[in-house]
Design a protein that fits this description.
Blueprint: E1 14-15, H1 34-38, E2 44-48, H2 54-62, E3 67-72, H3 75-87, E4 93-97, H4 100-103, E5 112-118, H5 136-145, E6 146-156, H6 159-170, E7 175-178, H7 195-203, E8 208-214, H8 220-230
Parallel strand pairs: 1-4, 2-3, 2-5, 3-4, 5-6
Antiparallel strand pairs: 6-8, 7-8
The chain binds S-adenosylmethionine.
C-alpha cells in the first residue's frame, strides 16, 4: 500500500497488527495498559473510523493533557493519519490500523474519557446494513469502557442512520443525552471537526449531531440489572 511520505518514520504513531485484522476478531485480546501505551498517565479518548485523521490531530493538539487513539480499518488512511501526526509533531495521539471490533475487547472497563464517532459509513444497501459500525454491540462496548460521566460524541450526514442511533440510545439507562455542540464558523481549511464534516458543510448538507454521557452508576452489573428491570 502506497504512502505519500515513505521517508517519514511513523512507527511510533501507527499500530499495525497482522493483516487482515478481521480474521483476528475472535482471538484472545490482551488488554491495553494506557500509561505504557502512551507513556504517560493522562486520560484517553477514542475515535472510531478516523479516516484521514483531521479530528485526531486537531483534538490532540488542542488537548495536550489528553491522549487520543484513532482506529481506522482502511490501512491507507491509517498511514496517512500517522503521517499527519508525525508532520505536526503530535506525541499524544496514535492510530490503530484495524477493525474497531478487534480493538474494543482490548480496552479495559471505565478507562476512556470520551468516544468519538463521526460520519460512520452508512452502508446504504439493505443487505449491507449489518456492516454498520454503530450497533448494539458497539453501544455495549462503549458503555463498558467509558468512565462515569465520560461522553460519546456523534455526527452523521445520514438522517436515517442518525434516527436509528437515537432510537438505540433513547431507552438506554447507561447513557444520558447532553446538548450537542454547535460548531462556529471555520477560520481556515483545517478548522473543521473532520474531513467529512468539511466536505458536507461546504456542500451545505445537513449534519446531525448527538452527545451522550455515561451515567454515573458504579458497576456494569448494576447497570445491566437496571436495564433489564426496565424491559
Ligand atoms: C465516512 S468515513 C468518515 C471518516 C472520518 N470520521 C471523517 O469524518 O472524515 C468512515 C470511516 O470509518 C472507517 N471504518 C469503517 N468501518 C470501520 C471499522 N469497523 N473499524 C474502524 N474503522 C472503520 C472507514 O474506513 C472510513 O475511513
Amino acid at each position: 500500500m502506497s504512502r505519500s511520505r515513505p521517508d517519514l518514520d511513523i512507527s511510533r504513531h501507527l499500530i499495525e497488527p497482522a493483516w487482515p485484522t478481521t480474521l483476528a476478531i475472535d482471538e484472545p485480546a490482551p488488554p491495553i495498559d494506557w500509561p505504557s501505551f502512551f507513556g504517560n498517565p493522562n486520560p484517553v479518548e477514542l475515535e472510531v473510523g478516523s479516516g484521514k485523521g483531521l479530528f485526531l490531530a486537531n483534538a490532540a493538539r488542542d488537548h495536550p493533557d489528553r491522549n487520543y487513539l484513532g482506529v481506522e480499518i482502511t490501512k491507507k488512511y491509517a498511514r496517512l493519519t500517522a503521517e499527519r501526526l508525525v508532520k505536526q509533531k503530535i506525541e499524544n495521539a496514535k492510530i490503530w490500523a484495524g477493525d474497531i471490533r478487534t480493538v474494543m475487547p482490548r480496552i479495559t472497563d471505565f478507562s476512556l474519557l470520551a468516544v468519538h464517532i463521526y460520519f460512520p459509513d452508512p452502508w446504504w444497501k439493505k443487505r449491507h446494513k449489518k456492516r454498520r459500525v454503530f450497533n448494539e454491540e458497539l453501544v455495549a462496548s462503549v458503555a463498558r469502557t467509558l468512565e462515569p460521566g465520560g461522553e460519546l460524541h456523534l455526527a452523521s450526514d445520514v438522517e436515517e442512520y442518525y434516527k436509528m442511533i437515537r432510537e438505540l440510545m433513547a431507552d438506554d439507562r447507561r447513557f444520558e443525552e447532553r446538548p450537542a455542540p454547535v460548531p462556529g464558523s471555520p477560520e481556515h481549511d483545517l478548522d473543521y471537526l473532520t474531513n467529512f464534516e468539511r466536505k458536507y458543510r461546504i456542500e451545505g448538507r445537513p449534519i446531525y449531531r448527538a452527545n451522550y454521557a455515561r451515567t454515573r452508576a458504579v458497576t456494569i452489573t448494576e447497570i445491566d440489572a437496571s436495564t433489564s428491570s426496565i424491559a
